[in-house]
């Protein structure tokens, strides 16, 4: 834990020095670290050792004595240590990626994106930037999210710290249509899915290993507090595998293959815009060009498929499993009652 705590402190130190135009004293840095990281105690000697460690790693941290004491600031050569040359094509790719990350606006991650973007703009040659501006006039990114997580930035910092330190977090969580409840979770990571941020965390009270790891939507957090309790991460957990098992964000130890009959039009859509990398499209009759197609796609919950299947209208029919077929049928029946009066 000590190693992780040191890395967190040093990263925050760099952020504080990057944001400080006139530098900080060790006492000021110590106070900021205690406030931002929620520490109970921190000795000035520890801050000095962290500064020296960063200097030893190659960061140009300078100091001088002023009326308010010895101050520390990042030197002018700091950016040169990591100087990178950008082409116009790379700049375009970076700007598109930045726009796709708008859900992070207002968070510590967005602050890093913006400061990096500003540094890139200042460092690149004028001719390269002019070429970039001309090209971006013909390339647009649409469908970007209409929400941000600025209001949850404090909770994100808390959860990020808990992930790095393997600490239990007490949360107040309010699912849609239900009362808020206080839970304890063991956070493993964060996931961005369709413009929303989810906390991938284990529920300690769940004994079934296949059900312990879940995705908790950050929008439904009303409070998050890091506890003094630590947890031992499960070495068998692989977040890339866990998040890649299904077409949506619903969690589960294993996914279920769902078979859907598609008409030609819908099958063409699914070839253009696949729902999942492992989906399969097979014609019912390979000798008939007008034949329907069977889509097989992994899913972890019927609710993941509902909006996608309903969007295809009568051109899609869920065949199996029965649970998924019935879930769609129930919704269609209720819609029919609503529209038929």
TrEMBL record:
Residues 155-226 form the WYL domain. It comes from Rhodopirellula europaea 6C. It holds the Pfam family WYL. This is Helix-turn-helix, type 11 domain protein. Residues 256-336 form the WCX domain. InterPro entries: CBASS_pafABC_assoc_protein (IPR051534), WCX_dom (IPR057727), WYL_dom (IPR026881).
């Amino acid at each position: 834990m000590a190693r992780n705590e040191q890395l967190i402190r040093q990263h925050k130190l760099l952020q504080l020095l990057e944001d400080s135009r006139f530098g900080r004293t060790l006492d000021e840095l110590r106070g900021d670290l205690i406030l931002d990281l929620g520490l109970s105690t921190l000795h000035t000697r520890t801050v000095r050792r962290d500064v020296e460690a960063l200097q030893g790693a190659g960061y140009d941290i300078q100091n001088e004595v002023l009326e308010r004491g010895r101050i520390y600031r990042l030197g002018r050569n700091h950016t040169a240590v990591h100087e990178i040359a950008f082409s116009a094509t790379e700049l375009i790719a970076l700007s598109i990626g930045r726009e796709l990350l708008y859900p992070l606006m207002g968070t510590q991650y967005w602050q890093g994106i913006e400061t990096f973007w500003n540094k890139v703009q200042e460092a690149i040659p004028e001719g390269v930037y002019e070429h970039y501006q001309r090209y971006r006039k013909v390339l647009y990114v649409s469908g970007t999210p209409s929400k941000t997580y600025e209001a949850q930035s404090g909770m994100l910092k808390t959860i990020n710290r808990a992930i790095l330190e393997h600490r239990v977090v007490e949360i107040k969580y309010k699912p849609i249509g239900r009362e808020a409840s206080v839970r304890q979770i063991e956070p493993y990571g964060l996931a961005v899915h369709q413009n929303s941020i989810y906390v991938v965390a284990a529920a300690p009270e769940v004994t079934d290993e296949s059900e312990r790891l879940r995705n908790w939507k950050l929008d439904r957090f009303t409070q998050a507090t890091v506890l003094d309790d630590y947890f031992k991460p499960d070495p068998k957990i692989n977040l890339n595998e866990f998040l890649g098992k299904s077409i949506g964000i619903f969690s589960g130890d294993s996914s279920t293959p769902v078979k859907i009959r598609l008409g030609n039009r819908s099958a063409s859509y699914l070839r253009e815009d696949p729902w999942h990398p492992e989906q399969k499209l097979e014609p019912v009759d390979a000798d008939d060009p007008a034949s329907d197609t069977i889509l097989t796609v992994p899913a972890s919950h019927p609710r993941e498929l509902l909006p996608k299947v309903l969007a295809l209208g009568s051109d899609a029919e869920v065949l199996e499993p029965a649970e998924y077929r019935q879930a769609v049928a129930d919704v269609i029946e209720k819609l029919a009652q609503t529209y038929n009066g």
